[in-house]
Each structure stands twice: as C-alpha cells, then as structure tokens.
Design brief:
about 140 residues; 4 strands; globular; alpha+beta; about 55% helix
Length: about 140
C-alpha cells in the first residue's frame, strides 16, 4: 500500500482554502499560508518546511486550474488579493441538480451544498471524507 499523506495534505489545503475564500466572498483577501496548513518554522537557512511549500503548491495549482485568483504569493507567506473564481463559487454554493430535489427545503438544499459538506468534513478532521468530496464534487 502506498502512503498518500501528501495527497491528503493537498486535499486538506484545497478544502481549507475554498472554505476560507467562500466565507469572505466576494472580497479579495490576503490568505496566509499558515492559516491553511498550520504553523511553520523556517530552518536555520530561512527555508520553509516541505509541508508549507506543498501548501503553496496546492494554491498555485488551484490558481492554474482556474479555481482561485490572486495577484502574488508574497514572501511565501500569503496570497495577495485572493478570491474564488466563478467556477469554484458555483461548485461550492450550488448542489448538483441530481442531488437536490426541486421540492427540497432551503435547509436541505444548503446541507446538500459542497461548502456545507466540506465544512463538516474539515470540522470532523475526516481526511477520507475531504478526499471524497474534493474528488467527486469539486474536481468532477
């Protein structure tokens, strides 16, 4: 069995980034890397940890794939003027049609949204659920 900790970290970083930006939408914010992946201490040479750099890689990937916008990653510490794209916002906010009955209550519709499910999975620290949600609902 291959260990996929880096992929679990990637999905976690994607989920936390999406939730953070959704909570601030439509504002453009400074999104700090440590707020996404946790605290980081530079080594004796001033270099960030592999985990911190992987988080930056996840943000760059989300940018390249058209899920987020930002102007710059300042000093490997934060993204400047960061926000969701329409593509990401729609995936987060609106349930898939086949999963949400037209007659469903507003609470049922909200609870069927990806942003609600991601929030619950991150809160529960369920890496399996986070992975499933990102793979099946967000990257699909």
């Amino acid at each position: 069995m291959m260990i996929t900790v880096n992929i679990d970290d990637f999905y976690h970083d994607v989920a936390v980034t999406l939730l953070s930006l959704y909570q601030q939408f439509p504002l453009k914010i400074s999104l700090y890397i440590e707020d996404v992946c946790g605290p980081d201490e530079a080594d004796e040479f001033g270099l960030h940890s592999r985990r911190h750099l992987s988080c930056i890689g996840a943000l760059e990937w989300m940018h390249d794939e058209g899920f987020i916008r930002y102007t710059d990653i300042a000093k490997q510490e934060c993204t400047e003027q960061c926000t969701l794209t329409q593509k990401a916002f729609r995936k987060l906010a609106f349930p898939k049609i086949d999963q949400c009955r037209e007659q469903a209550s507003s609470i049922e519709k909200q609870q069927s949204s990806l942003v609600y499910k991601l929030h619950q999975a991150v809160k529960d620290q369920s890496s399996i659920e986070i992975r499933d949600l990102i793979e099946n609902y967000f990257l699909n």
